[in-house]
Structures are given as structure tokens and as C-alpha cells.
Amino acid sequence: MADSTYPIPGAVEAPSRRWSQAAVLEWLNSWVTTVDHKKLGILYIVYAIFFLLVGGAEAIAIRIQLIQPNMHFLSPQVFNRIFTMHGTTMVFLFGMTYIFGFANYLIPLMIGARDMAFPRLNALSFWLTFFGGILLYYSFIGGGGLYGAGNAPDVMWWAYAPLTERAFSPGHAPDYWALSLIVTGFGTIGASINVISTAFCMRCKGMTLMRLPLLVWVMTVASGLALITITPLTAAQVMLLIDRYLGGHFFDTQAGGSAMIWAHFFWIFGHPEVYVLVLPAFAIANEVIPVFSRKAMFGYPAVVASSVAIAFVSLGVWAHHMFTIGMTSVGNAFFVLSTELVGIPTAIKIFNWLATMWGGKIRFATPMLFCTAFVIQFLLAGLTGIILSIAPWNWQLHNSYFVIAHFHYILVGAIAFCIFGGIYYWYPKVTGRMLSEKLGKWHFWLFVIGFHITFDVMHIPGILGMPRSIYTYEADRGWGTLNMIVSIGGIIQAIAVLIFAWNLISSYFKGKIAGNDPWDAWTLEWSTPSPPPVYNFATDPVVTSRRPLWDLKHPDDPDWHYE
Amino acid sequence: MLEKSVQYVLFRAKSWWLLFAFLICGAAFAEGPQATPSIFAPSSTPADEIYHLSLFVLTITGAIFVTVGGLLAFVVFRFRQRGEDDTTEPAQIYGSTQVELAWTVIPVLIVVVLFLTTARMIFAIQDAPKPKAALDVTVVGHQFWWEFNYPNLGIHAVNELHVPLSNQQSPTPTFLKLLSADVIHSFWVPQLAGKTDLLPNNVNELWVDPLHPGMYVGQCAQFCGVQHAKMLLRVYVDTPDQFAAWVKNQQQPAVADDSVAVGRHVFETQACMNCHTIKGTAATGRFGPDLTHLMSRDTLASGAMANTKENLREWIRHPDTFKEGALMPAMQLNDQQLDQITAYLATLR
């Protein structure tokens, strides 16, 4: 009996159908509806890189405007919008998402699990973050319309009240700022809960907390910190919206509200946020440096403890952003001390990386190049951080270009460098192909040179009295040459990032086939095929030490002897 | 050939660094006011104390950088892999309690030293007693200009602050009370003192004790809206004689010159007086700057341009040409009215 309604196996799908409309929709559908941690991780990373490029383009616009005194490349209003969007994009849309990209992709693979603890919450978190980003950028065409640069927020990324109140910011710009960040904030909360739950509940047999890969540990600490700090930010944003729409007076100083309370709320979020962003960068360095030095991480318990200590202390240092706001001398002294305390665990971390490299056989492949540059740049960032914690000196340097140089040392010199290193390191696992080492070296050297030209030099205009967030400056101030050098450095970095983007795309199609374990590494993800199958592990792994693959490769001298 | 070009590049790089070194040293050793307001060229007691503290901190952080950076450089060059085919693994070291204790204790000690030094200076500057001879000034920040009130002298000045020169034997510092009329601003004249914010509903304090006469530049250091960049600031440190003369002039009412009565009439009938005060006339507005002694100032619109008759006319005709986003509206005056009003304002010394 011939039944034509049932397809005959093998006869239906012709190869030419692969690029038909239906196939494309199906491919899209598989990404939109996915709850697989690896696909969501990739989505997060792609999203983060996209906004890195957008925020980078904004940075270039800022640098062109400041390349010489009295430029007219951007109008004052547009300049203010661009730098607000640059900061907001880089912190919230790039910084907060790369974390969950790495965490989502790697944590289940590293702890021998099949997925995150809550796969559907995971998908929801990503899409909340995604639409939060869309909402923020919709401000360019929504609200005030398409004219000029639309109605994007122009209140700085910390949106100090009362500038954000209706009296001083009519229209909808601060609403876009607050609403979009509330939405991405919900995404962050969901993702953080997922990371913490996964790390604590989904570990395979034998993986005790003190055998967790350092990346998992540090990502978990960062997620816990994100969970704690997103809450006051969201609360403050809701209060701001109540002020703007329901006649509340929390921050409305003309009705007796307080400008200082907004600053406290914001920095209670905003300072630990720096560590939310930088801890995952440490996490990446903690994986890359030992593998390329061919040594076990020196002082594993100290690394874990210092990460927890950083997270803990960072909750008590927020007012060092407010040394100029008029606190009492005792208040200022307290925050000097708490801020300087952060220097102790960070020093421990730097020494641990140094000791890990000490006596090793360091292979300078691209991931290691990025992570080595990170160590020295992070050291410098920490030292300028100490300088800024000296409250009297901070009264001079606060809101000057010195501060911008300092935090770009953290955000670019530490975080972006580690992200690049991490992407070069795990790209073969994700795609099955290696990134081009040749392009990688070009990327690294151009980026490191551009970075130092830009941000080393940027300290100087700060010392010479140049404040931040000004769209232009007078010709007689002596800041012109320095700004031109800074701008040229910025353009070199932009070229490097474009090379990187090209490397990501071209290596996807033409890169060298990677194999399971191209770097001869030790954590569990390298025991799976590249890319890993949907179910990750064919059989549930059992581990006996911090470096399961080391044990397999060196059965004569396994790690667990020493733990 | 290659060697030559490498040498050339090195030479160029060196000359850049020499330029930077020159900039910083030049700033550091110069005394008195400068066009580039370097924090390393202090001219007033608090700025000077901060400068010396910063040299101390720079020494410590510099030493840490040289030590740790040198260690890293050593590790990178000494322990890099030699020979691609060498696949043996180096000795595995998992940690060392003594070493880790050492590098925990040393940072603790450094933190203690830094904290004690810093705390001492915080108290010395913030809680400094106010001498009897001190001058009081109330600073009010506006979008995007500065108001200076001298409560004991009955003076309202705008954008250009005059303070008397002090000396170490009998200091006559100026104590500033800082307020804001709208959003948060920040008062920063790098050569005289660190910055302090001006907040609505809060009063902050700042003091300067200037040691060299002259004009010091500064500007608002907290983003305060569209024209934050041009909320510039000038402080004139006057010798006692100059200061007394300035005070005397500022205490006079506006000059009444009948030859410009038409211009004065335009001022009083074209809404200018709703925002501006000219003492001794019907104009008593408080929203914009006091214009009683307009021509005694070197700049217009908070330092956005030199105070010349042409600039003044252009500024009134179309404020956006100099300061886009300034809150003064273009008043749609015709050419004749513009000439009349400019002629009137030009008499306000």
C-alpha cells in the first residue's frame, strides 16, 4: 500500500534546500528558542562583541571631537549623548554580558554537568538582557525622533540626580536610561542566580568545592556580587521613575529631595560593579596563565580566598567615588582605609600569577600574550587606584582625565585584554577551529601599543587640570598635543579590534581544525569533542583532583597526591 | 637603512617622552598662575600640601611598580619556553605558606603607612580652623555660570572670583561656602585647592590660602548639562591694594549715563531685567548673572569669550554662537536695539 503522505527517508531533503527560506527560519528558530547553555553562551558573547564594536565606535567619535581644541565635529548635545551611551554600553551591554557568556558556556563543561541549573531561566535572562540593549539604543530613534542624534540619554552613565529630574531633563532620555537598565538588570539577576545554583548543585562526582576550577569559583563570586548590587541600582532607578512620572520627591531637590542619596545608591551598585566586571577577567587569567606556563596555579586556596575577600571588601568602599561631595573628615578617612584594604587581596592575586609563571615553561601563544599584558596593566591600574584612594589627592584628580585613564586601565587593560585572551583560548572549543595566530599577533601588538599610547598619556591631561565629560577645551590650556596623541592611540586600538573581528569571522570558515585539546590543558571541557555535543558528556565524569586531565595525562604523578 | 629608521623612531619616541617630562617638570617647578592649571604647580596652602603628599605616594607606588614590574619582566624573559619540541613539564609547585604570608603582610604594612599619612592630611585640611582674618565668600553654581557673594562686603560678583593674597606670617585665607541653585556642580581651581562639589540643599566648604598673585583658571568638574564644558572659572589673587580697589569699585551702584538712556530703556522693557540685576535700576532679576559691573570682567558667559563690545553684541544677538545650550534666550532684537543695548551695557564698569 503506497502512502504518499509519509516522507520516504533520505529522499526529502535535497542539499540545495539548506539555504531556503524555511531552513533559514528554522536556523533562526533554533537560536531564538534554545535553552542549551552553550548556545546561550555564544549568544551572550556575540551580543557582547557587537556592543563592544558599537561602544568602540562611540569612543572614536569622542576622540575625534577632542583631537584638538574647539573642534566642531559633534555638537555639545550630541557629544554628551555619545559619551553617556559609550559608558552605559560598555559597562552594562558589553561588560555585564561577557561574564555570562563565558560563565554559561564554560561552567557546566568545567564541572561535568549537562546544562545550567535552570535552562529556561537562562534563556529568559539572555532575552531580557537583549531587549534591554535594544531599548537603550531605540532611544536614538524613539522619543525625540530621528533628528540629530535622537533622544539618547545625556546624563553620564551614573545619571546623577537632580540632573535627571524632569526640571533639568525634560523629554524621555533618562527614562530610556533607567528602563533599559532595569530590564537588563533583571536579566543579570536571573543569570547570576543560575550561575550560583549551577556551581553549587550541578557538580559531578568528586568535584568538591575546593576542586572547582578557579574560573567557576571566581565567576560564582562575581555573580553573587552582581546579585547583591543590581538590587540597589534597580531600586534607585524605580525611585527615579517615580519622581519623573508620579511626582515623587526622592531626588527632586527643588521639592526637598536629596542629590546625595542618589549618589550613595548609585555607587553602592557602581563600585562593586567594577569588581563584578573584573573578577571574571581574573577568572579567565586563572585558567590561561597556568596552562601556558605549564604549572599548577600557585596557592589555589589563597586565590579563592582573595576573590571572596575582594567581593566582600568592595561592598564597603563605594563612597570613594564621593570624596568631593562633602562628607565629614571621619567619613572620608573611613573610605580611604576600606579602599586601600582592597589593595591587599589584589596584591596577593598578582603575586600568585607571578609565582605560577615562575619556574614554568611559558608558551607565548596569543591567549598568554593577552594575559601577560593584563598582569602588568592590572598592576598599574591598581597603583593608580591607590593614588586615587588618597582622599586629598583625589580632591584634585576626581572627575579629571586621570580618573578616566585609571578606570580604562581596568576596563580595557585588564578586562578587555582578558576577554580577548579568553576568546583566543576557548574559540577552538566552541567552533572546532583555531583562531589565526598570525592575525592574533597583529591584533595583540597593535592593541597593546594603541592601548598604551592612549591611556598612559591620558593620565597627564588629568594632572594638568583637564576635567572629564567636556566636549571641547580652550586652545591655551596646553592639552591639545596630549589629546591628539590619545586620539591617535584610540584609532590604533580600533584597527586592532577590527582585525580581531575579521579573525573571528574568517577563522570560523577557514581556521585550522582544533581537535579536542589544542592547548594541552587540564580542565574537563577539553575532554569533550570540539564543539561539544548537546549533552556535553557521553558518560558522567568523575574527578579526583583540581586538574582531571593532568591526572589522565600523568598517571604516574597525579595531582591529588598534593591536595 | 633599517637600522637608521629604527634609530629615527627611537629618537622620535625619546623626544616625545622628553616633551612629557618637560611638561610635567615645567609645571612642577613653576610658581604662580599658569594657563595650564597643573596640580603639580600649586599656589595655595591646601594645593601645596596635597602636592607634597602626592610626591610621597608617587614614591611608594613607583617603588612597587619597579619591584613587581621588574619581577614580571624577569619571569617573562627567564622562564619562556626554549625549543618548541621540549614537551617535558616543569616541576609543579602548588603553594607555599611562608611565601604567601610574606606577600600578604608587606601590603598590609604599606596600607597602614598610606592610611595614617592620608588620614592626617584629611583632618588637617578639612577641619582646619578658620582664622579671624579670613574672608567669607558664598559660591552658588548655576547652569552654566558662577555666582560669588561676599556677605561681609555686600558684593555680588560673577564668574570671576577676586580673593586677597595671603602670606605665611599672617594668613588671610578665603573660606568658600558652596551651594547650588540647580544641579550638582564642582568647584575646581587646580592650582589653589582640590575640588569640592556644590549641591542643592547642602552647604559644603572649601578654603584657599593663595601664595602668589595673578589669575588662576579652573572650571566646573561635575557634568551639569549641555554646556558643562564652558562653565569656566577664573580666580584673581589680588595684592591687598588691588583687592581694596576692586572691592571699592564693586560696592558702587551702576553708572547712570544719560547718553545711553535708550539702551537702558531697551534693557528694562525687553525682558532682560527678568533675569538680570543692575543695581540702582529697575532690573532685579536673579536667574541670570548680575550685570552691575559687567565691564569690570575680562570674560563673558563664564569664560566662553573675551569681554569685548563686539562679542557682547554677538552674544546678545545669538547666545548659541558662543555657548550652545546656554539658558539665555536669543531676544529677537533688531540691529538698532542691539546697538543701543550694547552701548548701555558697555558703560557698566
Automatic annotation (TrEMBL), chain A:
Pathway as given in its UniProt record: Energy metabolism; oxidative phosphorylation
Keyword match Iron: yes
Listed GO MF terms: cytochrome-c oxidase activity; heme binding; metal ion binding
Keyword annotations: Cell membrane, Copper, Electron transport, Heme, Iron, Membrane, Metal-binding, Respiratory chain, Translocase, Transmembrane, Transmembrane helix, Transport
GO aspect biological process, one term: electron transport coupled proton transport
Domain called Cytochrome oxidase subunit I profile: residue spans: 21-544
Membrane topology of the entry: Multi-pass membrane protein
Claim: Cytoplasm is one of the keywords in the record: no
Reactions the enzyme catalyzes: 4 Fe(II)-[cytochrome c] + O2 + 8 H(+)(in) = 4 Fe(III)-[cytochrome c] + 2 H2O + 4 H(+)(out)
A Gene Ontology term for the protein's cellular component: plasma membrane
One Pfam entry name: COX1
EC numbers: 7.1.1.9
Main location, first listed in the record: membrane
Membrane spanning residue stretches: 42-62, 82-103, 124-147, 176-202, 214-242, 262-285, 297-321, 333-355, 367-391, 403-427, 439-464, 484-505
Subcellular location: Cell membrane; Membrane
Record-stated family: Belongs to the heme-copper respiratory oxidase family.
Chain's role: Cytochrome c oxidase is the component of the respiratory chain that catalyzes the reduction of oxygen to water. Subunits 1-3 form the functional core of the enzyme complex. CO I is the catalytic subunit of the enzyme. Electrons originating in cytochrome c are transferred via the copper A center of subunit 2 and heme A of subunit 1 to the bimetallic center formed by heme A3 and copper B.
Protein name: Cytochrome c oxidase subunit 1
Organism listed in the record: Alloacidobacterium dinghuense
Gene name for this UniProt entry: ctaD
TrEMBL record, chain B:
Cofactor: Cu cation
GO molecular function per UniProt: copper ion binding; cytochrome-c oxidase activity; heme binding; oxidoreductase activity
Catalysed reactions listed for this entry: 4 Fe(II)-[cytochrome c] + O2 + 8 H(+)(in) = 4 Fe(III)-[cytochrome c] + 2 H2O + 4 H(+)(out)
Source lineage: Bacteria, Pseudomonadati, Acidobacteriota, Terriglobia, Terriglobales
Alphabetized Pfam families for the sequence: COX2 (PF00116), COX2_TM (PF02790), Cytochrom_C (PF00034)
Bilayer topology term: Multi-pass membrane protein
Family recorded in the similarity comment: Belongs to the cytochrome c oxidase subunit 2 family.
Gene giving rise to this polypeptide: coxB
Its biological purpose: Subunits I and II form the functional core of the enzyme complex. Electrons originating in cytochrome c are transferred via heme a and Cu(A) to the binuclear center formed by heme a3 and Cu(B).
Domain Cytochrome oxidase subunit II transmembrane region profile: 31-129
Natural source organism: Alloacidobacterium dinghuense
Domain Cytochrome c residue range list: 258-349
Membrane-traversing stretches: 54-79, 100-123
EC number annotated for this UniProt entry: 7.1.1.9
Keywords from the named record: Copper, Electron transport, Heme, Iron, Membrane, Metal-binding, Respiratory chain, Signal, Translocase, Transmembrane, Transmembrane helix, Transport
Protein's name in the database: Cytochrome c oxidase subunit 2
Ranges where the Cytochrome oxidase subunit II copper A binding domain occurs: 132-249
GO biological process assignments: ATP synthesis coupled electron transport
Keyword Isomerase: no
